Amino acid sequence: MPVHKRSTQIAKTIMEFATHQMIKPEEIDFDLLSFQTFYQSPKHLEWTLLDAPLESLFEEKMIRSDLLRLHQEYELRLRPLQGLQAPITLSANKTKSKIVALIKEGASLSCEENLQEWLKNQIYKRKLRTGLMIGIFEPNLDLQLNALASRLTCNTPLDTEIRIVVGESPGPIEPIHDAVVLHYDKKAKSDNQLLQGVDADELVAEYIKPKRGRNGRGCDGKFVEVLEPRNKYVSYLQCDSTLLRRENDDSISFFSKISGYVKNERGLLSISKELSIKAASFRKTGSIDPGQEREIIVNIAHKESSEDAIGCGVNINVKEVNVKGTVGANTTVRAEAINVGEQTHKKAQLEALEHANIKLHRGRLKAKTAKIEILETGSVIADEVYVQKMLGGEIIALRVVVDELISNATVTALESIKIGAIFGGNNRLIIDARAIESYAQQIDVLKAEIKQMSGDLDARKVAYSKKHAAHLALAPRIKTFQKKLLAAQQSGTPALKADIIRIKQYKQAQGDLAAEAILLTQSECALGEIELRLAQLQEADMHAVIEHQHAYDGQTKVLFIETKTAKTHTLVPEGRRARIFLQKEGDEKKITWEN
User: Which of 40, 88, 560, 575 could be 569's S-S partner, Cβ–Cβ 3.0 to 4.6 Å?
Assistant: First the structure.
């Protein structure tokens, strides 16, 4: 039998009724017969019936205040649950300031005489069961339900999910706690970097100022209090003259004035161009790659001789690297200048855009100029190389000087090789311009340019010849037109306009051909200049020299490889050969020397 109840908490009323009837609360349904909303405020000390929209009685500040209290009273008819329930569920945010009704895809609604009112009734029941208020904080609910009812077909599965907002109150606005954002540090950590370079005018760090939030109210009518913002880091960030401090209402920002990397000493920020560390390892520091454009100098002073100053797997890319120690395996060091006080591992790769200075080199080095105390099995590619002692290894450079050549070494140069003393065998001294990558590229570029220009010039010449021949073929007819024009002038009669036009066109074509002939001559000259440049490059072998002021012992092989033909000239000198070079005899070249 249905039972009438008056309630202020429907969920509690249902639970009490279910306990009395000895059934589950889920098996009880109810009909909402009526409801009323009451409020208290500083101006309304007694509970007062709300008979107008809340927003029309109070400003938003009061609605958000704990000085306003709300509650509702309901007239219910409780009864057993009958039939299938509407496939409507509610979801709410944490503060219950936004309530959404959801009807899932594939669900269908029963046919009701007034679908809009039926939907509203079903939504109200679900709101009341969860302690939410009804008839308040429901902007546009009726409009939404009317639009929804007009496009739904009863007993037909929905082809898409439906969501509508059925409750929205002025919820709380959380405070903004003060915070420090280290933008540079985020980049460094994401790249496993010891440091991250910054450019001039780059945002380095921020202090986010605290801001008060706003108290709110949920769709259950309850006041929601917001805590005071945290104010923890107000004095943490400071900067020196290398950074610019900019402040607004929301934050204090720190911008770098110069490029470099960021030093943070307990909140004191500065931009530095020099980093000094004891060692660089993959585990402790990660790579150091802020970029050479940041002009950072890295000094590594490692005192432990049993460990590498730059450990396995570390990549360094800065302006200058100074290492007091060894460079380990599988490392990559790139800088304008590289100085290594001990040795490089055979699997280390170094690239110096300007100068490299290494005590003992076993790895791979590419530089503009290189100075090496001992070269042992390593390789060097550079413009100029100076080695005090070479025990194996390979050098490819424009110019090479080796004080002591021991054994098993290969030296290849474009211009000159100077050897102080030779103490061992199986050494090779080679003059080969094509071994120099930049030189070989110049030759290949010129060859390709000559091929392209020659093809274009030949095609233009053929086209010019055809136009020139056609122009000469017109000469007899043009002379006829000129005679007719002269006769008309002498007789005082008007000349034919067509004859005048033909003569003008012929003269114009004659001028165009003359201009084109000049352009062809200029193109031939340009091609000749490029061919001359190529010929000069291909004669590089004739200007190269190998110098050794002491006697050869017959254990060193000297090779000159012709730049143009790749023909190899070989000599195994014995005795004194101060200068060895190529010399032309007729069309052929041969190795010769001066003592």
Answer: 560
Nearest to 166 by CA among 106, 102, 215, 116: 102
- Comparing C-alpha atoms, which of 545, 549, 546, 544 is closest to residue 422? 549
Share of the chain above pLDDT 90, in %: 64
Q: Cα 508 to the chain's mean position, in Å?
A: 57
How many whole angstroms separate alpha carbon 595 and alpha carbon 574? 12
Q: At what angle do helices 475-491 and 437-473 cross, to 10 degrees?
A: 50
- One-letter identity of residue 310: I
Neighbours of 206 (CB within 10 A): 18
Q: Would you tell me the crossing angle of helices 141-151 and 115-129 to the nearest 10 degrees?
A: 130
Comparing C-alpha atoms, which of 589, 593, 544 is closest to residue 573? Answer: 593
Tell me the CA distances in angstroms from 210 to 23, 179, 196, 293, one per residue in order.
53, 8, 28, 37
pLDDT score of 457 more than 80:
yes
**Burial tier of 148 (Cβ tally within 10 Å: 0-12, 13-18, 19+):** middle
Instruction: Considering only CA atoms, give the Rg of the chain.
Output: 46
Token pair of 367, please? 């530089």
Q: Any residues with CB less than 8 A from the CB of 367 and at least 6 apart, and which?
A: 338, 350, 351, 352, 353, 354, 355, 356, 380, 381, 382, 383
Q: What pairs with residue 432 in β-bridges?
A: 561
Question: Residue 115 — φ and ψ, nearest 5°?
Answer: -65, -35
In whole angstroms, what is the distance from residue 199 CA to residue 259 CA?
4
CB 341 within 8 A of CB 323: yes
For the chain, how many helices (H) and strands (E)? 9, 33
Task: Express each pLDDT in 41-96 by its tens digit.
Answer: 999 999 999 999 999 999 999 999 999 999 999 999 999 888 777 889 999 999 99
Q: In angstroms, rounded to a whole number, what is the distance separating the alpha carbons of residues 385 and 372?
A: 8
d(CA 143, CA 430): 91
Which of helix, strand or coil describes residue 457? helix
Residue 474 corresponds to which amino acid? L
Whether residue 154 contacts residue 91, with contact meaning beta carbons closer than 8 Å, is answered with: no
